[in-house]
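User: Design a sequence. Structure:
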């Protein structure tokens, strides 16, 4: 039983050794991309790779650098081969005997990832630069100020969407130049007797711009102002990007927390407020609909009332015309009745004839066959007068009716005017109801928009904890740079690559600004013999000082020189100095 357990243990151990016991060589990798910049010339970028090994072994491997280009590679050891593979520069090494702490450096040409432009203004006027041999020379006679500006723009679209850390440091001699204005204030500035140093730490969002204005304080004997170049570094390490994004996320959470208090409580309150705004918007919209309908009904009622008022006025006019006509006819009848009564009354008063006289009158009128008697005539007159009285009574009733018609007409006209006024007021009320409906709709829309904004804010806040705050292309950026690994080609040995960092460095040219022409009118030209004769004491002092320095170092190492010898040496040096002071150099 024990033997079986031992065999099983050994088999398991062998399996673990085969699976996990494979030798691993750790490699720390640092990449520095240096871009040589001369305005008006082609920009060349070289990647210098530093590999530090942590194991003792003989290794065959290939190391990869992103954004490679064609060109020669160089190294501190022999390179087996270097070629482009899918945009990466693959550099291979064979039979490399490495020990713990062994460092390997090699350089390969790579693509330019950025474009940098330099612009020099002297007293506000652009200076044309002529560049060669790492220097640029421009002419600006009697210039009092120099404006040095630079612009960095990514050439690869992937870098345009990333926040790349940019570091700029600058040192100038205050005897010649002194900074007086900046487009962006430096984070640090230090001034000593012979140097003014200042530094920026910023982030490039799509591009980076910096401008510094220097006051010209002096020039060298050749009438030139030396403008040293700034040191510019862009960090391309993906870990820095992740750290920046994490800090940004943390800062956002802290800012929201300090501004809004407890985010969960604020989100809950904002949700309740959003629902309330939605409900208010819905309620106001319903009220607006009802007011709109009421306005339409009021306008319809006003139209009906205006129509009735118009018809009532027409009816009153017709009644007035009829009344006037009837009143006129009644007036004529009344006049005729009055005349008839008067005639009948005169006839009644004047009837004094006898029967015989009546018959004579009838015969005269050829009315003998009428058989009318005097009594009948009187009865007829009385009957007519009685009928006239009845007609007058009827006329008085008609007059009362006409007066009633007059009142009715007046009332009808007043009612028509009142109806017209009421209709106009209804129209005004309908307009007010429509305006109120419109305003309520606008209020409802505003509340709905506010609710939508709150809803959007709530949605964004709910994603604060889970959202990935990585810009577009960040994944591709990470993958590209993390593929810059060393791959072992030695059987049974693997390589683990740890990144120490990656930076992009701009090697900018130093600039000389010709400010004045040197005055050489008082310079005395000497013959070479005289010049050599005047310089031999200087050479002697240099030799003596060199010997003294050598003896001094030897004395520090062996402690064999005593104080007396050193005193003699110093006395000899002082004598030579006095001789030099008395010579005509």
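Assistant: Done.
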């Amino acid at each position: 039983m024990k033997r079986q357990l031992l065999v099983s243990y050994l088999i398991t151990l062998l399996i673990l050794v085969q699976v996990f016991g494979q030798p691993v060589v750790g490699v720390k990798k640092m990449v520095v991309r240096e871009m040589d910049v001369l305005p008006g010339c082609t920009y060349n970028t070289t990647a210098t790779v530093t590999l530090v090994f942590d194991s003792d072994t003989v290794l065959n491997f290939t190391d990869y650098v992103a954004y490679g280009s064609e060109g020669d590679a160089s190294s501190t050891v022999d390179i087996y081969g270097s070629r482009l593979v899918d945009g990466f520069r693959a550099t291979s090494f064979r039979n490399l005997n490495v020990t713990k702490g062994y460092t390997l450096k090699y350089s390969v040409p790579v693509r330019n990832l950025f474009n940098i432009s330099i612009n020099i203004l002297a007293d506000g006027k652009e200076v044309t630069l002529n560049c060669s041999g790492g220097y640029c020379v421009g002419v600006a006679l009697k210039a009092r100020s120099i404006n040095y500006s630079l612009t960095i723009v990514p050439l690869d679209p992937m870098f345009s969407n990333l926040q790349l850390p940019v570091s700029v440091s600058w040192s100038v001699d205050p005897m010649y130049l002194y900074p007086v204005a900046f487009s962006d204030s430096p984070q640090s500035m230090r001034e000593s007797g012979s140097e003014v140093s200042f530094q920026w730490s910023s982030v490039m969002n799509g591009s980076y711009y910096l401008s510094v204005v220097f006051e010209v304080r002096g020039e060298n004997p050749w009438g030139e102002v030396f403008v040293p170049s700034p040191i510019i570094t862009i960090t391309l390490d993906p870990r820095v990007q992740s750290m920046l994004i994490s800090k940004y996320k943390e800062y956002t959470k802290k800012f929201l927390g300090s501004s809004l208090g407890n985010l969960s409580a604020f989100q809950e309150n904002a949700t309740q407020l959003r629902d309330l705004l939605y409900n208010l918007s819905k309620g106001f919209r319903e009220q607006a609909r009802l007011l709109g309908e009421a306005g339409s009904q009021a306008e319809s009622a006003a139209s009906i009332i205006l129509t009735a008022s118009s018809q009532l006025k027409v009816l009153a006019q017709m009644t007035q015309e009829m009344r006037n006509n009837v009143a006129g006819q009644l007036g004529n009848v009344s006049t005729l009745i009055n005349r008839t009564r008067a005639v009948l009354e005169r006839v009644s008063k004047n009837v004094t004839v006898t029967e015989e006289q009546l018959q004579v009158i009838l015969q005269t009128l050829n009315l003998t066959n009428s058989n009318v008697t005097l009594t009948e005539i009187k009865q007829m007159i009385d009957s007519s007068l009685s009928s006239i009285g009845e007609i007058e009574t009827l006329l008085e009733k008609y007059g009362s009716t006409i007066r009633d018609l007059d009142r009715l007409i007046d009332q009808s006209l007043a009612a028509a005017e009142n109806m017209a006024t009421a209709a106009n007021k209804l129209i005004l009320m309908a307009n007010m109801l429509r305006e109120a409906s419109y305003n309520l709709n606008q209020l409802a829309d505003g509340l709905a928009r506010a609710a939508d904004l709150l809803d959007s804010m709530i949605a964004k806040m709910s994603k604060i904890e889970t959202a990935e705050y990585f810009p577009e292309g960040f994944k591709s950026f990470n993958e590209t740079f993390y593929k810059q690994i060393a791959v072992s080609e030695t059987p049974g040995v693997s390589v683990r690559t740890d990144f120490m960092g990656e930076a992009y460095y701009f090697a900018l040219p130093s600039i000389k600004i010709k400010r004045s022409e040197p005055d050489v009118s008082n310079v005395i030209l000497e013959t070479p013999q005289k010049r050599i004769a005047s310089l031999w004491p200087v050479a002697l002092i240099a030799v003596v000082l060199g010997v003294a320095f050598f003896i001094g170092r030897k004395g520090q190492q062996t402690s064999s020189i005593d104080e007396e010898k050193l005193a003699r040496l110093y006395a000899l040096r002082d004598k030579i100095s006095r001789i030099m002071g008395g010579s005509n150099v």
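The longest strand covers residues 494-507. The CA atoms of residues 114 and 155 lie 5 Å apart.
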